[in-house]
TrEMBL record:
Keywords: Oxidoreductase. Pfam families: Aldedh (PF00171). It comes from Aspergillus nanangensis. Residues 20-467 form the Aldehyde dehydrogenase domain. This is aldehyde dehydrogenase (NAD(+)). Its EC number is 1.2.1.3. Residues 19-33 have a biased composition (Polar residues). The lineage of its organism: Eukaryota, Fungi, Dikarya, Ascomycota, Pezizomycotina.
Length: 474
């Protein structure tokens, strides 16, 4: 099916439905309005929950093969519309078209691959008179709450595991980026029975309505740590299962033995991709003092050659930040550079522009206590810091409330493994950062989250654990 990307509706029980009120977000590259989208009410949500509960029983009893068939159709539908969706993604999110295509490619891969994983069933006791089996059963209706930085991949990354494991799902995109999420719902309506995948867009009150709703059994939330705490408190009232994928302030430690020229392009990209609006970007860069000056100079050279502009223009690497709230937060952080007496070796100020553009900025050796080190900027500003002692740099890297990702870069794999073993984060890399895969569980330590998504471990989090005791005599 060809997608119309000029009109947008909710998808409830496989029907396109409108709402009395509508709203729109804006294109961050030029601050022009994007099309109108529904503003869902409590009644819209009730209708979706009723449909999801009705769909749950037959869907949870369908075989894995039947569910795989629908998921294959869904993956094919996304693939067939990838060009249109990538264009829409750039229009709503601001990321360069090449990065939108990468996000669509990953979403298709996730949708094709996650359903190839088998969910384990473990025989824990097997004797003459009894068998005890641990297995996983679906939970019920899932609420999928998605942020604005990866509106496609993170929606698909919640839809696929929830329905593959036998649940039904109601997706809520971010009010800043509702467009691709609604279109994913339209595609899903052609692939799944009514009520299995539904998408509702709304204002700021829709998220709390979902987390409060007694007819929803599990929430998978990706967003900030501040909101994650609210989500968990709200879910506690109905004892919903909850997975939280939250913010990060990832450290990256560069040892003195690296090949600087080979590493610089990787570090440059892994610090600034999507204008640094990725939970797992490098956000604190620790460089050994023996190579610090040369590294800083080459990193500045590399990053300043990357083009800033509208994501639809060719060769742009830095699109705008996604929304006015994020832009204002970044301006506030940039103001701390002068009030804290910090030295920007690249960028350092935000000139007026027609969109939410922020020039890439690198800060030279700020103190650990400075805001740019302590906070998650979610904007293209990177603190570069010196270190000399291994234990000391590991302590600095771990001295954070966050624990999403962390990396060590060295040619000495024994040293790399030794340092990696001491890093407190859900994903730890040696000579890489932000490598994620559909078959590897992903999640945060400390305030970066609870639980995991993706991989077999992620799939089981959309399930209840059930222990079957089969006593052979009656
Ligand atoms: P956010 O927390 O503001 O919003 C995330 C989603 O939650 C949106 O859909 C929003 O409408 C909804 N929401 C807001 N208040 C709610 C409430 N009280 N109850 C229920 N839902 C509510 O986050 P954001 O600004 O959209 O995203 C940026 C943040 O997300 C960053 O901190 C980033 O690190 C984090 N993030 C984490 C991951 C991860 O996997 N760990 C991935 C991407 C982004």
């Amino acid at each position: 099916m060809a997608l119309d990307i000029t009109t947008f509706s909710n998808i409830i029980n496989n029907e396109l439905t409108s709402t009395a009120q509508t709203r729109h977000s804006i294109n961050p590259a030029n601050r022009q309005p994007n099309p109108e989208v529904p503003v869902s009410t409590a009644e819209d949500l009730d209708r979706a929950v009723t449909a999801a509960r009705q769909a749950f029983r037959p869907w949870s009893r369908a075989s894995f093969e039947e569910r795989r068939k629908s998921l294959r159709a869904f993956a094919e539908a996304i693939q067939a519309n990838a060009d249109t969706l990538a264009q829409l993604l750039t229009q709503e999110q601001g990321k360069p078209l090449s990065q939108s295509h990468q996000e669509l490619g990953m979403a298709v891969e996730w949708a094709q691959s996650l359903p190839t994983l088998d969910i384990p069933e473990t025989v824990v006791v097997n004797t003459e008179d009894r068998q005890v089996i641990q297995r996983y059963t679906p939970i019920g209706v899932c609420g999928a709450i998605v942020p604005w930085n990866f509106p496609v991949l993170l929606a698909v990354g919640k839809i696929v595991p929830s329905v593959y494991t036998g649940n039904t799902v109601i997706v809520k995109p971010s009010p800043y980026t509702p467009y691709c999420g609604l279109k994913l719902g339209e595609l899903a309506a052609k692939c799944f029975p009514p009520g299995v995948v539904q998408v509702l867009s709304g204002g700021d009150d829709l998220g709390p309505m979902i987390t409060e709703h007694a007819g929803i059994d599990k929430i998978s939330f990706t967003g900030s740590s501040v909101t994650g705490r609210r989500v968990m408190a709200s879910c506690a009232k109905t004892l919903k299962r909850v997975t939280l994928e939250l913010g990060g302030n990832d450290p990256c430690i560069i040892c003195e033995d690296v090949d600087i020229d080979a590493v610089i392009p990787k570090i440059g990209i892994l610090s600034f991709l999507c204008s640094s609006q990725i939970c797992m970007m490098i956000k604190r860069l620790y460089v050994h003092e023996k190579i610090y000056d040369a590294f800083r100079e080459k990193l500045v050279q590399f990053v300043q050659a990357l083009k800033v502009g509208d994501g639809t223009e060719p060769d742009v690497f830095f699109g705008p930040v996604q929304n006015g709230m994020q832009y204002d937060k970044a301006k506030n952080l940039f103001a701390s550079l002068s009030s804290e007496g910090l030295n920007a070796v690249l960028g350092g100020s935000i000139p007026e522009s027609k969109g939410y553009f922020i020039p890439p900025t690198i800060i030279d050796n700020p103190p650990e206590t400075s805001r740019v080190v302590q906070e998650e900027p979610f904007a293209p500003i990177l603190p570069l810091m010196k270190w000399s002692d291994e234990d000391e740099v590991l302590a600095r890297a771990n001295d954070s409330d966050m624990g999403l990702g962390a990396s060590v870069w060295t040619r000495d794999m024994v040293r790399g493994r030794r340092m990696a073993d001491q890093l407190e984060a859900g994903s730890v890399w040696v000579n890489a950062h932000f490598e994620v895969s559909w078959n590897a569980p992903f999640g945060g330590h400390k305030s970066s989250g609870i639980g995991t998504e993706w991989g077999v471990n992620g799939l089981t989090q959309y399930c209840n654990s059930q222990t079957l005791h089969l006593i052979k005599s009656a």
